[in-house]
Design goal:
Structural class: mainly alpha
Order of helices and strands: HHHHHHHHHHHHHHHEE
Shape: globular
Radius of gyration: 22 Å
Low-confidence stretches: 441-454
Oligomer: single chain
Number of strands: 2
Helix content: over 70%
Length: 454
C-alpha cells in the first residue's frame, strides 16, 4: 500500500468515528441545557457526577482500544478472532466494573471534597444509573474496538447515531417535560443516558455477531482465559492509564486557571471545549491507523508500518487544520454558543492562536501514541504522558500566577510537543526492535516492485 492509499484508507475509517464522537458530544450538550432549564441545583449535581463519569468512560474506552492490534491480523480468521473477542469482553467487565464502582461512589467522593449537601441530596439514583452506563459502555467498547479493527467503522457510526438519537429523544421527554408531561430532572437524564448506552452496546454486539466473520459462532464470554486477558491488559491498561493521567492533569490546569479569576476560568473552559471538538478528529485518525500498523507488524514490513504512521500524521494535520480554519472563520458564532459576554468572547479570540497550537501538537502526540498501540507497545506512551504532564501539573499554578492563561496554554502546547517527540522516537525504536527481533524485515522497492530482505 502506497502512502497515498494509506492516507485514503485512514481518512475513510476515521470519518465515521469522528461523526460518532461529535454526535455524542451534541447529545451531552442537550442534557446539560435541559437540566440547566430544569433547576440549577440539578445541573450542579449533574456536573459533579459527570466529573467522575467522563474520566471513567474515557479510561474504559482507552483500555479496550488495546484489543485492536490483536484483532487486526485475524480479520479473516474467525478461529483466531473468537478467543480474542471473548477475552476482550472479560477485560471490559473487569475495567468497567472498577470504573463503575468509582461513579457509584460519587456521593461519598462529593462529601469528602466538600460538595454542598443541597447538591448531594439531588443525586438520588443518578450515580447508580451512570454506573450502569459505564458497564454498558465497557461492553460497547469491547465490540467497537473489534469492529474498527475489522474495518467496520461505518457500523460503529450507525450505532452511535442511533444511541445519540435515543438519548436526545428521552432527554427531551423525561427532562424537558414538554406539554403536559412531567419533568423527572436528574433521574430522567440518567434514564436517557442508560438507555442510550444499552442501545449502543446492543447494536454493536449484534453487528459483531451477525455482520463479521464471527457470524454463526457463539460469542458468549464463556470461561475466562486469564493468560489471554492479561495479554490484552498489558496493552490496554497502560493506554487507559495514559487517558486517566491526561484527564487528571487537565483538571489541575482548570484549577490553576480558576485561581487567576472567574473570567479566566470561563475563558479556559470555553477554549478547552473548542480543543476537544477539534482534537476528537485526531483520536479518530489514530484509531484508524492501528489496524494498518498491526497488520504490517505481523508481516514484519517496516516500511509500510512507518508509512502508515506518516499517513496518519498527514490525515490528522489536514483534519485539524481544516477544522481550525473553520473555527477561525466562524469564531464569532461558534464562541457565541458558549458565552454571550463580549468581553469573554474577545479573550477567547485572543487565545485562539495558542488553542490551535495545542490542537496541532496534541494531534501529533495522539497519532504517535496510536502508532505504538499498533505495535502493542503502550507503556512508552504512558511514561511519556506521565513525565511531561507531570511536569506540567507541577508548574501549572506558578505559571498561571506569573503569566496568566497565555503562559498556561503555552506550557500545555510545549508538553504536547514534547510528548509528540518522545512518542515518535519510541515508535521508531520499537518498530525497528520488533522487526529485528522477529527476523529479517520485508523491504519493498516502490519503484521496481521488488521485495528484498534485510
Amino acid at each position: 500500500m502506497s502512502e497515498h492509499s494509506a492516507f485514503r484508507t485512514i481518512a475513510g475509517a476515521a470519518a465515521p468515528l469522528y461523526v460518532t464522537t461529535l454526535a455524542a458530544s451534541a447529545g451531552s450538550l442537550v442534557d446539560t441545557a435541559l437540566l440547566g432549564r430544569h433547576a440549577t441545583v440539578s445541573l450542579a449535581a449533574f456536573a459533579v457526577t459527570v466529573a467522575v463519569f467522563s474520566p471513567a468512560t474515557a479510561t474504559v474506552a482507552g483500555a479496550l482500544r488495546g484489543v485492536m492490534p490483536f484483532v487486526a491480523p485475524h480479520r479473516d480468521d474467525p478461529e483466531g478472532l473468537l478467543p480474542l473477542v471473548r477475552s476482550g469482553m472479560w477485560l471490559a467487565f473487569a475495567v468497567g466494573g472498577v470504573c463503575a464502582a468509582a461513579v457509584a461512589a460519587v456521593p461519598l467522593l462529593g462529601g469528602a471534597f466538600g460538595v454542598p449537601g443541597a447538591v448531594l441530596d439531588q443525586l438520588g439514583v443518578f450515580p447508580w444509573m451512570l454506573a450502569g452506563s459505564v458497564l454498558l459502555i465497557a461492553v460497547n467498547s469491547s465490540a467497537t474496538s473489534v469492529l474498527v479493527a475489522l474495518g467496520r467503522s461505518a457500523q460503529v457510526m450507525r450505532s452511535g447515531l442511533v444511541g445519540t438519537a435515543v438519548s436526545v429523544t428521552l432527554s427531551v421527554l423525561l427532562v424537558g417535560g414538554p406539554g403536559p408531561l412531567p419533568s423527572f430532572g436528574l433521574t430522567g437524564a440518567g434514564a436517557a443516558m442508560l438507555a442510550s448506552a444499552l442501545v449502543g452496546a446492543g447494536l454493536n454486539q449484534y453487528a459483531l455477531r451477525r455482520r463479521t466473520v464471527l457470524a454463526g459462532r457463539p460469542v458468549r464470554p464463556g470461561r475466562p482465559d486469564p493468560r489471554e486477558v492479561l495479554r490484552l491488559a498489558r496493552v490496554g491498561l497502560p493506554l487507559g492509564g495514559t487517558v486517566l493521567v491526561k484527564f487528571s492533569v487537565l483538571g489541575v490546569l482548570t484549577f490553576a486557571a480558576a485561581r487567576i479569576g472567574t473570567d479566566s476560568a470561563a475563558v479556559h473552559s470555553v477554549s478547552e471545549s473548542l480543543v476537544n471538538v477539534v482534537f476528537s478528529a485526531a483520536v479518530a485518525v489514530g484509531q484508524a491507523t492501528v489496524p494498518l500498523i498491526a497488520g504490517y507488524a505481523e508481516e514484519r514490513d517496516l516500511a509500510r508500518i512507518r508509512r502508515s504512521v506518516t499517513a496518519g500524521f498527514g490525515v490528522a494535520l489536514c483534519a485539524v487544520v481544516v477544522l481550525g480554519a473553520v473555527l477561525v472563520v466562524l469564531r464569532d458564532p461558534v464562541i457565541g454558543l458558549f458565552t454571550r459576554s463580549p468581553g469573554l468572547a474577545d479573550q477567547v479570540v485572543r487565545l485562539l492562536p495558542l488553542v490551535l497550537a495545542v490542537v496541532v501538537t496534541d494531534a501529533l502526540q495522539a497519532v504517535a501514541g496510536f502508532g505504538l498501540v499498533g505495535l502493542k507497545r503502550t507503556m512508552p506512551s504512558l511514561v511519556s504522558t506521565a513525565v511531561w504532564f507531570g511536569v506540567l501539573a507541577a508548574l501549572a499554578v506558578p505559571v498561571a500566577d506569573a503569566a496568566g492563561l497565555t503562559g498556561l496554554w503555552t506550557a500545555l502546547a510545549c508538553a504536547n510537543l514534547l510528548q509528540a517527540v518522545t512518542k515518535s522516537v519510541s515508535f521508531r525504536r520499537h518498530s525497528a526492535r520488533i522487526i529485528g527481533a522477529a527476523g529479517p524485515a520485508v523491504v519493498r522497492d516502490g519503484g521496481a516492485g521488488a521485495v528484498q530482505r534485510r
